[in-house]
Amino acid sequence: NWTTRNVVEESIAAIREQVGTKRAICGLSGGVDSAVAAALVQKAVGSQLTCVYVDHGLMRKGESEQVEKDFVAATGVQLKVVDAQERFLDALAGVSEPEQKRKIIGREFIRVFEQAASEIVAEAGAHGEQVEFLVQGTLYPDVVESGGGTGTANIKSHHNVGGLPEDLQFQLVEPLRRLFKDEVRMVGQELGLPDEIVQRQPFPGPGLGIRIVGEVTKERLDLLREADAIAREELTAAGLDRDIWQCPVVLLADVRSVGVQGDGRTYGHPIVLRPVSSEDAMTADWSRLPYEVLAKISTRITNEVDEVNRVVLDVTSKPPGTIEWE
Ligand code: XMP
């Protein structure tokens, strides 16, 4: 008898049984899976949970606030926010190659998260408490893909703050292991999470870092954030969110083209719109968006975003194109 309420109640009972009186930590990514997993554990064991949000500066406009304010307000979780924007920008300086960017972002993310986890473990230890669990938003398809195993996570601490253990060992808590994505969204809704998080379309872990073709800089990120926010706003206003799997907005930072605006010639960057429809992201087709919506997005982006003088539409299916540009 599958009802969302049953699923929530059963999983809360299971989490209480697993975690007992120990402490748990959970990394929030801004996405729906980690948010719903954290919200369930919070319901089950309350203040025994501490969440960590690494702000790498590669999120879209408003997304960090959604986690830091709206998610916290909706759930009451204890949240440790790490502002790592400078660190990520420094690490990415001078790097244009996509796989290199991914590696750097992944590596920095793990280091910053481990550092935060070590601090939480140390603080708990000072109060005689033990952090034994790491919460993860693993879904059923991930479980199947990885052969069904469950277990522990071993976190090596790279930055040895005095007195911390060399290795942090955690047992995994995976409350979404039996759920599909749409069920996770229903659970999130049942738990009262904000729509912006529950209905969020897929967004890659490396964030806007792989949507800037060229080097990632603060200026370019700010510019892309503005263009992306306009595209999202207009797609939502046109009621198209449910028709589109996701719509990457890409800045071709290493390309310039000539334009004319106001009383003069411009030499600016193109923005690419990549709206796709898909079932599972393995294959995709480009979305046939209404011309009026495309026109509105184009006019607004070229008017409102400095340095952008051209908007182009990606009409490539996957394969041969990937959904992301990098
Ligand atoms: P591609 O570009 O390979 O993307 O067609 C397929 C889906 O995966 C997402 N994507 C990523 N997600 N880390 C992620 O967490 C990544 O490095 C990454 N690269 C692509 C992409 O947004 C699409 O939904």
UniProtKB/TrEMBL annotation:
It comes from the Bacteria. Pathway: Purine metabolism; GMP biosynthesis; GMP from XMP (L-Gln route): step 1/1. Its EC number is 6.3.5.2. Keywords: ATP-binding, Glutamine amidotransferase, GMP biosynthesis, Ligase, Nucleotide-binding, Purine biosynthesis. The keyword ATP-binding applies. It is an enzyme of class 6 (ligase). ATP binds at residues 29-35. Residues 2-200 form the GMPS ATP-PPase domain. It catalyses: XMP + L-glutamine + ATP + H2O = GMP + L-glutamate + AMP + diphosphate + 2 H(+). GO terms for molecular function: GMP synthase (glutamine-hydrolyzing) activity. Homodimer. Catalyzes the synthesis of GMP from XMP. This is GMP synthase [glutamine-hydrolyzing]. It comes from Streptomyces pathocidini. The gene is guaA. The chain holds residues 209 to 534 of 534 of the full protein.
